[in-house]
Write a structure and sequence with these properties.
By secondary structure, the protein is α+β, with helices and mostly antiparallel strands. The chain is 35% helix and 29% strand. It has one domain. The strands form 3 sheets. Strands 1-2-5-6-7 form a 5-stranded mixed sheet, covered by helices on one side. A 3-stranded antiparallel sheet has the order 8-9-10. The protein starts with a strand and ends with a helix. The model has no long low-confidence stretch (mean pLDDT 91).
């Protein structure tokens, strides 16, 4: 279920103490309007009622989609990789089969929601994104500081992303054949998660993709 608390937040501009509602937990089915705000990246928007100062107030939040079977924990102030693993599946057996991920920004939260709502494997998606980022760097000299999944259309055989190169404010759209995702599924399957990993919140990002690809290529060389 969705849970919220209220805390006073000091305005950086005028110093006013503003009572602020914070969502510690968001259930997509119970509060669909919060799902929309997460996808619009406005869930953490904050405004001072006294002076009008606007900011993004990001705090820990657990997003849960019961129907699609996934949970995403937003752990801000640093990398999601600093999040200490918790044996969620062991303590709560009913969550053992639920996909559990940890992210560090609202943009990453949005991306995971889009990926899982599309019925895709986020590990395979990260592998495709990792490959496209490499092409963008090698062929165009644009090193991506950030990159996000946008959409997938299996019938049209396309999967799309947007990249934000270092030093550029505007995103660069890139897409490739959906066949690349199918191939990446093979690589992801070869890097099967352990039971401990399946029971914990895991970061699945570019670093994870690089690790999976390295393991796969190493195994291929040994054959």
């Amino acid at each position: 279920m969705s849970t919220q608390i209220s805390r006073d937040v000091g305005c950086p501009k005028c110093g006013a103490a503003v009572p602020t509602r914070m969502w510690q937990g968001v259930c997509a089915q119970q509060n669909p309007e919060l799902r929309v705000r997460a996808l619009e990246e406005t869930l953490f928007d904050w405004q001072c009622p006294r002076c009008g100062y606007r900011a993004q107030l990001v705090y820990p939040c657990l997003y849960h989609d019961r129907e699609r079977g996934f949970m995403v924990y937003l752990a801000p102030n640093g990398s999601g990789r600093e999040f200490q693993p918790v044996d969620v599946g062991g303590k709560f057996p009913q969550l053992a089969g639920v996909k559990k991920r940890v992210v560090s920004s609202p943009a990453e939260l949005k991306e995971k929601i889009l990926i899982f709502e599309a019925g895709l494997d986020d590990r395979a998606v990260e592998l495709v994104k990792y490959a496209l980022a490499g092409v963008l760097d090698k062929k165009h000299g644009e090193k991506a500081a950030e990159g996000y999944f946008v959409s997938a259309d299996e019938r049209a055989n396309r999967i799309s992303f947007c990249f934000f190169p270092e030093g550029r404010a505007r995103a660069i759209p890139r897409s490739t054949r959906f066949d690349a995702y199918r191939k990446s599924l093979e690589i992801a399957a070869a890097a099967a998660e352990t039971e401990a990993e399946r029971n914990s919140f895991l970061p699945v990002d570019a670093l994870a993709a690089r690790g999976m690809l390295g393991e796969y290529l190493g195994a291929q060389e040994e054959k």
